[in-house]
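[step 3/7] fold_predict: job queued, chain A
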Amino acid sequence: MSNLTTLARPYAKAAFSLANEQSDLAGWDRLLSTVGAIVSDETVADLLRNPEVSREQCLAIITDALGEGADKSFTGFLSVLGENKRLSLLPEISSLFSELRQEAEKRLRVRVVSAIELEPRQAQQLEQALARRFDREIEMENIIDASVLGGAIVYAGDQVIDGSLLGRLEKLQAGLA
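[step 4/7] structure written:
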């Protein structure tokens, strides 16, 4: 996985630079997400791996699926990927681009895992506390998992804040062992 990230990072940065120049980060994010999903499709992935299918044919399949949604610079970006045999990196490029966009827009996507759904007031308080802590606008997703028993586990970027009852019990058990 890290090898794919290493290969995809320069392309994601280049795409971000192009999108930023055009003041169209949201549009490029949407297009990259779309082509990332197209390339993730097993049939398309098989075509990309097939040596009998030319890069031009693969590129045509992807651009045809986009229809009129892509401008010349985006299709040019896809052409560069095709020439360098990197179309299969599109899902990873899309993910890295989204991270770059979130950083530029000072937003952070957060997953909160709790035993029960957070009440609106709780969710709002948690969102405000996280916004203060990370100095970012928070996009919060609440995931229900009864195994946490109580409390919550917050996944924010590469950080994990474990405030769950399960986490506390595990720490207590480790301390007693």
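[step 5/7] annotate
The two ends are 35 Å apart (CA to CA).
The domain at 2-103 is CATH 1.10.520.20 (Peroxidase; domain 1).
exit 0
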